[in-house]
Amino acid sequence: MNNIELIEKINELKKEKNAVIVAHNYQNDEVQEVADVIGDSLALSRYCADNDKDVIVFCGVHFMAESAKILSPSKTVLLPEIDAGCPMADMVTADALKEEKKKHPGAVVVCYVNSSAEVKAESDICCTSSNAIEVVKSIPEKDILFVPDKNLGSYVAQKVPEKNIILWEGYCITHHRVNLDQIKEIRNIHPDALLLVHPECQKEIWEQADFVGSTKQIIDFARESGHSKFIIGTEMGIMYKLKKDNPDKSFYLLSQGLVCPNMKKTTLKSVYTALNEMKYEIKLDEDVRLNAKKALDRMLRIG
Ligand code: 13P
Ligand code: SF4
Q: Which residues bind iminosuccinate (predicted)?
């Protein structure tokens, strides 16, 4: 089947199965084109918590589809590519977190949504890169154990200095490798462009930025800004929406290495197969789901 036929089939199956296709901002262009909802982790979690579809086809990585299932247990949640994981999420396990909690008995565990359901279940509250600062500010206690992203955790620590933030040794392999030489090089070529970066980049990178935010916040900033040139320090999939929303503005990817191979696994073909064969269905242990939901719900209650 060619892409036009695949899109037709996907639309037929969507109606037949009362399904919705949600896609993260890093997905391949062709997947974003066929999606009903595109967004960052927070927007997609909110959408999945509150919609009337029977089936959610989650075009993203495993933890995102798991969050959808945690929030919508009665729906069938499908992840088109079962191997689409997140290496950062794998850098913390529930057992390792339990051990670390023993070392910091009074600390509140804030868990970045890039984590497994089991880790969420061991945490007090979740956050995304959109709301991490608000989440940490909402906690009365001073000591916070922040897992797993040390870069986002350092960013929050700088913005909320009144808290004692204990970091975990986790990071995103895609964002962590951005370096200062790349910034210097691209700023030499485009000296009048603003630098917009994701907080999963290292401290020395976000310290250089004109704006730091989640994928949605970067998209909103670029659309609302009076500026017309931007260097983008996050995964290349975001360029699709940036260019679509702003045909008269220019966007330059900070580094050609800003590719998340897991986000790129999903294709039109895999979306079609997911709907046609109803795979791969996300299933969770009910105790784990309920405990993980407490941490996600506490986050979602924050504005
Ligand atoms: P956002 O929540 O900003 O979309 O980020 C998710 C992610 O995985 C970033 O690498
Ligand atoms: Fe995980 Fe990084 Fe890919 Fe986001 S970009 S899904 S944090 S590996």
A: 24, 41, 112-114, 129, 198-200, 215
